[in-house]
Design brief:
- The chain is about 40% helix and about 20% strand.
- By secondary structure, it is an alpha/beta fold.
- The chain folds into 2 domains: about 270 residues, Aldehyde Dehydrogenase, Chain A, domain 1; about 180 residues, Aldehyde Dehydrogenase, Chain A, domain 2.
- The strands form 5 sheets. It has a 7-stranded mixed beta sheet, with helices on both faces.
- The model has no long low-confidence stretch (mean pLDDT about 95).
């Protein structure tokens, strides 16, 4: 599954002003060379998207569905090859890359299905005397040029959640992958453009520009851009929201997801969930378990069961099928995670397990901290590494208050056998999603996904992202 040379800008592929190596995070070896764009190329891409905006907006529902379904089918055929590439490019364990590709295919299929559900409704204007004799209805129209900026941890899936809803809505889209992980996204965009051309649509409906923050700024501040969809850190997301105003923004900004263990919980199931939910993708997921709040009555027993499972986690080369934790995306990320662990210990946290590097020196070993105090980034911020923090609370009320005492609110979870406690959690936990008796990292790609507070604004999931990328147009007719 090869790509043409350069970057997919306009109706073809254009030479990039620079190129750079893409490194395997596990050992630093070069796995490929990627084209690197600049701000001028970004502006050129937006200008082209604006030029084809009307044509893309007038693509029939049948053509849009054909393209999306075609991408889903061809992407499914490319899964084995893209899994291999994702392992090398992201450094994620193979099992997580396999999950990413399954979810990406499902996202394109769902977007194809949602084209048939994009419609409006009539409005009874004659409820008011001024509306007597009038006929009113509204439809949804594409918002215009969309910019999608994806994170490094799930590059194909995150790009799919930007591109597929934009095409379903009838919007041209320019995607910017993370600088460390451009290769798989380039292949995805090449595949999408082939399907567009086969359907008689312009290839320039989907473009891709790589590059640094200047490229991102050129994209998000261009006057022809109507909406920006960003997945990444809160700091960058807030800056994009300010710079992009008054354009529409959809921001998925991560979290420090919490899991609550009630006194009546199935402790074995909860312990399994913390291991699975805290360490998948080497902890580099915005809804991985970071904070665990356990009701005091079962805290000691829960910690015992959790620590019994901790040594079973396989750390090492992500190419090996048994590996569950591998190297983080780069050395700077590794140093930051270990620094935060050290700061927490210096502030009084108890080290239960881990706390350093593996024998190779490349990976952060799964780390379990207890009673990390407020004010420490390992508790307050998004650590984005294989680190889980335990704290106790006297009861569920206090546990829920502790979960909510965070500037983030993406997903949260509670383990309980009591239906009243479950519904209470859904009602009281301040998060975009609440999961009962499973990991907060559970996400259905057809469901609304997004956060509250500093975890973002707007919702992804094809149906909901399509709504974000369309505007209502009211029609009033006097016969």
């Amino acid at each position: 599954m090869t790509c043409p040379e350069g970057l997919p800008v306009g109706e073809g592929w254009v030479p990039a002003p620079a190129a750079g190596p893409v490194l395997f995070p596990y050992d630093g070896t070069e796995i490929g060379v990627a084209p690197i764009g600049d701000a001028d190329l970004a502006r050129r891409a937006v200008d082209h998207a604006a030029a084809v905006r009307v044509r893309v907006g007038r693509l029939t529902a049948g053509v849009r569905r054909q393209v999306l379904a075609g991408v889903a089918a061809t992407l499914a055929d490319a899964v084995p090859e893209l899994v291999d590439l994702l392992v090398l490019e992201t450094g994620k364990p193979r099992v997580d890359c396999e999950v990413e590709m399954r979810r990406a295919v499902a996202t394109w299929r769902s977007a194809a299905d949602e084209v048939a559900h994009l419609h409006g409704e009539t409005v009874p204007l004659d409820l008011e005397p001024s509306g007597e004799g009038l006929f009113g209805f509204w439809t949804r129209r594409p918002v215009g040029v969309v910019v999608g900026i994806a994170g490094f941890n799930y590059p194909v899936l995150l790009a799919s959640h930007k591109i597929a809803p934009a095409l379903a809505a009838g919007c041209p889209v320019i995607v910017k992958p993370a600088p460390a992980t451009p290769l798989a996204t380039l292949r995805l965009v090449h595949l999408v453009r082939e399907q567009l051309v086969a359907a008689g649509a312009p290839a320039g409906a989907v473009q891709l520009v790589t590059g640094d923050a200047e490229v991102g700024r050129a994209l998000t501040t261009h006057p022809e851009v109507a909406a920006v969809s960003f997945t990444g850190s809160a700091e960058v997301g807030h800056r994009i929201a300010r710079d992009a105003a008054p354009r529409k923004v959809v921001l998925e900004l991560g979290s420090n997801a919490a899991l609550v263990v009630a006194a009546d919980a199935d402790l074995d199931a909860a312990a399994d969930a913390v291991v699975r939910g805290g360490l998948y993708a080497s902890g580099q997921a915005c809804i991985s378990v970071q904070r665990v709040v356990v009701v005091a009555d079962v805290a000691a027993e829960f910690e015992k069961r959790l620590t019994e499972r901790w040594p079973d986690v396989v750390v090492g080369d992500p190419r090996e099928p048994a590996t569950r934790v591998a190297a983080l995306i780069d050395g700077a990320a590794t140093d930051r995670v270990l620094d935060w662990v050290g700061r927490a210990r210096a502030a009084g946290a108890r080290l239960v397990a881990g706390g350093g590097r593996d024998a190779s020196g490349r990976c952060v070993v799964p780390t379990l901290l207890a009673e990390v105090p407020d004010g420490e980034p390992a508790w307050d911020e998004e650590i984005f590494g294989p680190v889980v923090c335990l704290r106790t609370a006297p009861d569920l009320d206090a546990a829920y208050e502790l979960v909510n005492a965070s500037r983030y609110g993406l997903h949260a979870a509670v383990f309980t056998r009591d239906l009243r406690s479950a519904f209470d959690a859904v009602d009281r936990l301040e998060a975009g999603g609440v999961v009962v008796n499973d990991v907060p990292g559970y996400r259905s790609d057809i469901a609304p996904y997004g956060g509250v507070k500093d975890s973002g604004i707007g919702r992804e999931g094809p149906r909901f992202a399509i709504e974000e990328l369309t505007v209502t147009r009211m029609a009033v007719i006097r016969p």
